[in-house]
Amino acid sequence: MKISGKIVDLHKRKIYTGEISFMGGTITAIKEVESAPDLFIMPGLTDAHVHIESSMVTPSQFAVAAVRHGTVAVVSDPHEIANVMGVEGINFMLDNAASVPVKFSFGAPSCVPATSFESSGAVIGPEEVRKLLLDKRINYLAEMMNFPGVIYGDEVVTAKLKIAHNAGVVIDGHAPGLTGGDLVKYAAAGISTDHECSTIEEALEKISLGMNILIREGSAAKNLNALASLLESHPDRVMLCSDDLHPEMLERGHINLLVARLVNKEYDLFNILRAASVNAAVHYSLGSGLLRVGDKADFIVVDDPGSMKVMQTWIDGIMVFDGSRTLFDAGIVSKINKFNCNHILTDEIEVKNGGATMRVITAQNGELLTGSVIVETGNEPLVHSRPDEDILKIVVKERYNDAPPSIGFIRGFRLKQGAMATSVAHDSHNIIAVGVSDEDIVKAVNMVVDAGGGMAVVSEQDSELLPLPVAGIMSDMPVSAIAESYLRLTEAVKRQGSSLDAPFMTLSFMALLVIPELKLSDKGLFDGKSFRFVPLFAE
Amino acid sequence: MKISGKIVDLHKRKIYTGEISFMGGTITAIKEVESAPDLFIMPGLTDAHVHIESSMVTPSQFAVAAVRHGTVAVVSDPHEIANVMGVEGINFMLDNAASVPVKFSFGAPSCVPATSFESSGAVIGPEEVRKLLLDKRINYLAEMMNFPGVIYGDEVVTAKLKIAHNAGVVIDGHAPGLTGGDLVKYAAAGISTDHECSTIEEALEKISLGMNILIREGSAAKNLNALASLLESHPDRVMLCSDDLHPEMLERGHINLLVARLVNKEYDLFNILRAASVNAAVHYSLGSGLLRVGDKADFIVVDDPGSMKVMQTWIDGIMVFDGSRTLFDAGIVSKINKFNCNHILTDEIEVKNGGATMRVITAQNGELLTGSVIVETGNEPLVHSRPDEDILKIVVKERYNDAPPSIGFIRGFRLKQGAMATSVAHDSHNIIAVGVSDEDIVKAVNMVVDAGGGMAVVSEQDSELLPLPVAGIMSDMPVSAIAESYLRLTEAVKRQGSSLDAPFMTLSFMALLVIPELKLSDKGLFDGKSFRFVPLFAE
């Protein structure tokens, strides 16, 4: 096979009219030629860190969508499904990913469960990590979020790090804002990446300690503008990643859109593409081709680096996207789930007035952080949602066992009617719901229960469901279908009064205890600053 | 670190006075020098195919003994423990082997159980093979003994081969005497080795079809003399292996003794050492060092190629044997076993006279093959051992469930008194015993039962036991101790009248149904030619 065009050579740092020959999946020759089509041929793109579950589809459906945007390799941490289903869930991801040509490299999740203050579906201890790292498809220890545990030498954390060192694998980091002596200890533990930097100073300090920086631009966090200058100062120490990419964003683009943005910011094309391919391939030993003789024939054909519209994607010498269609399919999924709870009842979420004031969570648009306010409870025997004051009831129902729901109140969702519920709720993925009337909350939660997971919106007129039957957090439908459904549900919530840009995403972080200030676990209201449960009623 | 001596360079095919520098486990430089000690430095040796269980010790104890003989890498098929304990047993071997520096490469056993005519402890189906091949420590599909299954496209065999192809691993063969069109089909299935050749013609036919030949010289089969000329005719297509190496032989030497024998036969030293190191390292991707810059610093220091007395063994740049002591230890073993049977009783092994004649197995010294004779049963109501005619009772007791023993008669052991029993009995490793009096047979079997596996000798005066508590086929004691105990038991059997060279080995093959003619399974007397059970009484 031969293909010709304007070859973007990241090694010699030049673009020339050339022809690539390949056979049996491997590049056998690259030479300059007189003339060729006016299209750019460059290495395929790599997402250096993504939780596929956040796209609400299986790895194979993720791949079907991602090759449309020129992605050929993906470094993935199956952290979400591991919280739901442990090793069984991870094996599902591995097997499913193996059915498509995209080159997935999976990590062994290092922090499951995230805290002991919530009910998760599984525990990944040192022995599980050791066994996972023996699997040929698992090639690194995934983001070590428990940085206090690293710094203070927590026994379990230390054991996991030692296992990773003995296995000779890369250890990924996650240390937002960590600095000074603590950061020195963290880097000295052999943790070689971070994707949580939000300022250039933070990134430079981490680089100075030998870490590599993954510039993240996804659905939840956006650091590209803040960190882009690293492409000039440290071109061999940066990679690009999305971390979390919701289906409607994955439908529109992937790493290619970041490349185009950086090109339009006039960064050096070779540095950009090294960050988008070479650096991750080297750091994670991905085996993805980089357009050298002897490399795997993994490359993409694009119209122009400034648009990064992908005309063709090739993996192992086989065309997998032809400019209009993906040329492989996502296959059949043997569904797996862990959903062991019954319906909730309205009297289970009644709140008896137990004090003059109560703690209310305050959510902010696009933020994982929350605040907390104290409001008066009034004189009624029961405390209800007060939509006129934007104080709504929020409920978390454990899904792994049939325990009573926990209940709180939240400000920021601004629903005037109805309710919404989702089983995508970081990190334990219990069911979380917010709403105006108890009846609608119960209805929304029970729709999710009946579906074995999903997202639901209930209004006076109508109700709508996005089923997520794979572990209660993913679908086996194409990204396009899930994106459409997800957007429709989001619009429904907005019609009910919410002014949040992504109300389901905001809701999904309201049970994420590690990010303060006030959150709701299935076990009760949690103060993330003092790291302890607090009562609903303040006095 | 530096070491100097007469460097045996297998790549340039020369021996020169030189110095090797290494750091961090890797060779950084090799250069000629003026003078150096009068010792030979060569790549460490590899056993290209061995069932470690046959040495009756754990992999770590095997390693402690083998490095004394210059072995640095071992390609091992955990077939025996897989028959006893399945995947759990294989994982034990992997974990135990990982605790020592010798470079073990394990295969996924392809034929467990060996037949459906006996009770084994486990089944390794295609799905188990698939999962095993995902383990980073399992790098090939082990010997495909079911060659009829390959040739006739048996569904399970075909599934296992396909899984191995998809995993991109080497497939090992085992096809004694296979020739012509059947061999063409066998090789065409992608099976790339054979260690069962006993004639040069057989080996050359297999080589002509692309297969590699492992020249085997072990405790059970000895093909070195017959096949040595392959070192001249096909130096890149041969490796050396032991297949099965009993403890007393491993105590004396390993691949080094084969090298010395071949040197004394005046074969080319470079070809001999390529067969003993390079060829296996390449074929099985062992990663063992071959004395090139950039290779792992795995090498040995020997006094002379004609004696192959090993003065030092180095693995990954660390000295592991200093000429007198092994410098690592075998560690603590968490014992595993599968032994679920009770004592047998004398009346369970009584044989009521059921016909005028009966079938008697005839064992031959050093042979896996047996014959069959018809003898008269006499007029007594019970049939007993008749030591004067060398017709002894033989008993197989299943150890995985508590089933009644099966009983037959055998000629060839020549015991004049007492009994012997062993739980090393290929391939299912039930308990097999032979003896003169029922009381002594029962006593010997029950000693093995009480020990959870082992070998026992019972005589009128005395009894002796070699306990094999690890899966009932191995010990965690050093090879030297097991060798001594094994030789003592063998001598005891010889004092009781046996003229067999290795009576326990011969006994261990009397339940190996796939090798004809007449054998005894735990389910009854088995005719290996017609592949069916036959009654004890012939008429």
What would you say this structure looks like, in words?
- The structure is a homodimer of 539-residue chains.
- Chain A has 539 residues and is an alpha/beta fold.
- Chain A contains 15 helices and 26 strands.
- The first copy, chain A, has an eight-stranded mixed β-sheet, sandwiched between helices. Chain A has a seven-stranded mixed β-sheet with strand order 3-2-1-4-13-14-15, with helices on one face.
- The interface between A and B is small, with 5 and 6 residues.
Q: Radius of gyration of chain A from the CA trace? A: 24 Å
- Tell me the greatest interface: A-B, 5 and 6 residues
Q: For the record, give the distance between the C-alpha atoms at the N and C termini of chain A, rounded to a whole number.
A: 76 Å
In DSSP terms (H or I, runs of 4 or more residues), the helix count of chain A works out at 15
| Alpha-beta content class of chain A | alpha/beta
| Rounded average pLDDT of chain A | 96
- Proportion of beta-strand residues of chain A: 25-35%
Q: Give a short account of the largest sheet of chain A.
A: 8 strands, mixed
| Oligomer designation | homodimer
Give unreliable regions of chain A as ranges: none
Q: What is the global morphology of chain A?
A: globular
Relative helix content of chain A: 25-40%
Got a strand count of chain A?
26
Strand order of the largest sheet of chain A: 17-16-19-18-21-20-22-23
